[in-house]
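Researcher: I'm preparing a figure for a lab meeting and need a structural model of a single chain. I don't have an experimental structure, so a prediction will have to do for now. The sequence is pasted below. Please return the structure as tokens so I can convert it later.
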Amino acid sequence: MALRQAHAVGEVVGVVRRPEAVAEAIEMGAVDRATMNGPAAVAEADVVVLATPVRTIIRQIAELGPHMRPGTVLTDMGSTKRAICQAMEALPRGVQPVGSHPMCGKERSGIAAAEPGLFRDRIWVVSPLDRSSPEAVQTVEALGRIVGSRIIHLDPARHDQLVAAVSHLPYLLSCGLVATVDALGQYDPEVWTVAASGFRDTSRLAASDVRMMLDILLTNREAVLAMVERFEADIRALADRLRHGDEAGLAVRLEQIRGIRQEHSPR
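Model: Understood. Here is the structure written out token by token.
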């Protein structure tokens, strides 16, 4: 939608799963035309963008790669990069793969949740492969810049380690918070009545699409588990200060954390 509004591309062909989504995608201005035939669509494309759950992207790379013309640039919107870039290594030699991940999103999913301004003022991670040509990398960078993103380059493994901390761990924490409040709500449902903005903001990610998040967690399991263990140690340290009534120690640590948050506040 953003590329079309910017008049940056000649034609956008959308590949959809449901017959009714063909008309939906056209009516909302997301595509010039849509089809359920993926191989036929990619066979005529200059640039292919895979925007599905991570494990579906991996499967699509293998299924659609042989149908792409030499020189076609293939990129993805996947939230993990190592497994995807590994799958891209097996593409036919003529295809030009470049891993990418725009750092944006929302808990709602599906075509109705699409919005053209989603990428504006966001980081767009580009993870080139050794086989990626400079021209292919420049093409993917241009797509990100056109829709308003700021481009950075990250090695796939480093990307996965970083997003495990700032994206995948927060999802699990959000889910854990909802489960904890629900346990209390089983015998005192009034807890849902008093839940206000603090709970709403910190639990928002728990509403994310489960299938998408399962793919993310399972393709980045080691990095996510490492961050879970780090969090467990940090929350245990705070709890110990509270348990022992260490007001001074607790205050010092909370002020330190508050300062870190203010210094590095995400936009």
